[in-house]
Amino acid sequence: MVDFTKRIIAPSVLAADWSRLAEDCSRAIRSGADWLHLDVMDGHFVDNISFGPNFIATIHRTNDIWLDVHLMISRPDHFLDRFVKAGADHLTVHVEAEHEVSKTLRRIREAGCTAGLAVNADTPFEAALPYLDQIDLFLVMTVHAGFGGQALIPETLLKVKAAQEYREKHGLKFHIEVDGGIYLHTLPAALEAGANAIVAGTALFGAADMAAEISRMRHL
Length: 220
Known about the structure:
Strand order of the largest sheet: 1-8-7-6-5-4-3-2
Strand content: 15-25%
Largest sheet: 8 strands, parallel
Shape: globular
CATH topology: TIM Barrel
Low-confidence stretches: none
Helix content: 25-40%
Radius of gyration: 16 Å
CATH architecture: Alpha-Beta Barrel
Number of domains: 1
Structural class: alpha/beta
Oligomer: single chain
Number of strands: 8
CATH superfamily: Aldolase class I
CATH class: Alpha Beta
């Protein structure tokens, strides 16, 4: 059962030191992370290339933590079995990608993972409405997808609020996750809008004391 009342802190591995991947992921776990967030980018859906299943399998082999895999790729339906095999616990796909969304979400759940749906910063909330009863997590991109270190776009939080209101009105149970531009000074607005799953990359892996930063985010 999804407990969306719990605040979840998910450091984004995109901002980790990949030359010390296992060690940096272990540091996040020791610092109190709930999940690790893994942004998979294919160079087509977004204008960047990150990593694939083997990278995720390496983290799975060397660390024991929930792997929150975000597929920013054109054909998530084609590749999802490889990410399940690599050790993903959760898979989020985009409503804008080239696939039958309901079918992909069903396949994710049938594979034993939880399923999420993401919308880009410029995509209206209404695009997700047909699928909100089929998901465990709704991800709102709070920056333009593709690169870390961007500033949060305040208007995107309107979709967070809309999702929170829709979930309450229809008695649904899914996490609301925000991804992009999350720091201590931007987190309060995201929390107030209704987010409970917090992705942060630079703010956490770039912190001098990650444990202290995670604690601050958890207790704001």
